[in-house]
């Protein structure tokens, strides 16, 4: 081997090793792939109530970090649904804000939090969960297919109706009350959260 060939080989090996070191040192972004195939990173995922929502965290972990979902998280814990909503899913969760819970009469809210009403509370919360991962685009597609409305089957077995209202998703419960999706497509490691402005009431 000539001196020139030997020098070229050494330089080439050095560059290859440098490239490997840089690849090893490069930080890994926290990501999640949505149903559309788009990659959601920590920086592109929406914040909720000013709090960062990481797509690598579960629904319960991110909801617990949200300053506007304290009532929801307390209810999930009281109903014994933490393990379920921390599971692999995927789940679509319509998450009522604290202001949404405040619309429910205090006597009813307090009653739900009693141990004797655990099953009732679990039923209300499961009514906000749809098995599978439905993005806003998915829901809008179902509404279009249904010529203006879509029926979503919730985890408690009852139907939830989705329509469009002034460009937003409007949900109508089995008992007739309504909630608007005020923020959608908050990616989770085990599904997606859509923030809603009211508690949806199933048929009791």
Polypeptide structure, described:
By secondary structure, the protein is of the alpha+beta class. It has helices spanning 3-25, 59-65, 70-78, 82-85, 98-102, 106-112, 118-126, 136-145, and strands spanning 31-33, 39-41, 91-96, 129-131, 150-153, 159-165, 168-172, 178-188, 191-196. The protein has one domain (31-196): Roll (FAS1 domain). It has eight helices and nine strands. The protein starts with a helix and ends in an 8-residue tail after the last strand. This is Fasciclin domain-containing protein.
What's the CATH class label? Answer: Mainly Beta
Number of helices, where a helix is a run of at least 4 consecutive DSSP H or I residues: 8
User: Terminal Cα separation, in Å?
Assistant: 86 Å
Low-confidence stretches: 1-37
Rg computed from alpha carbons, rounded to a whole number of angstroms: 23 Å
Order of helices and strands: HEEHHHEHHHEHEEEEE
Number of domains: 1
CATH architecture: Roll
What name is given to the CATH topology?
FAS1 domain
Strand tally = 9
Described by strand count, sense and barrel closure, the largest sheet is: 7 strands, mixed
The strand order across the widest sheet is 4-3-9-8-7-6-5
Assembly of the depicted chains: single chain
The residue fraction in helices comes out at 25-40%
Let me know the CATH homologous superfamily: FAS1 domain
Fraction of residues in β-strands: 15-25%
| Mean residue pLDDT | 85
Shape: globular
Q: Which class best fits the helix and strand makeup?
A: alpha+beta
């Amino acid at each position: 081997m000539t001196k020139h060939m030997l020098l070229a080989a050494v330089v080439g090996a050095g560059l290859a090793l440098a490239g490997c070191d840089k690849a090893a040192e490069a930080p890994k972004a926290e990501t999640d792939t949505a149903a559309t195939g788009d990659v959601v990173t920590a920086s592109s995922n929406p914040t909720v109530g000013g709090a960062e929502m990481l797509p690598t965290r579960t629904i319960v972990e991110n909801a617990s970090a949200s300053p506007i979902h304290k009532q929801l998280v307390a209810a999930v814990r009281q109903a014994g649904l933490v393990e379920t909503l921390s599971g692999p899913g995927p789940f679509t969760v319509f998450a009522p804000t604290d202001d949404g819970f405040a619309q429910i009469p205090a006597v009813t809210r307090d009653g739900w939090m009693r141990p004797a009403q655990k099953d009732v509370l679990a039923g209300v919360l499961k009514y906000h969960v749809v098995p599978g991962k439905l993005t806003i685009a998915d829901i809008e597609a179902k509404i279009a297919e249904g010529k203006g409305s879509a029926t979503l089957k919730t985890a408690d077995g009852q139907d939830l109706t989705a329509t469009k209202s002034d460009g937003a998703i409007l949900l109508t419960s089995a008992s007739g009350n309504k909630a608007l999706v005020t923020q959608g497509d908050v990616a989770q490691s085990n599904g997606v959260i859509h923030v809603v402005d009211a508690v949806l009431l199933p048929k009791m």
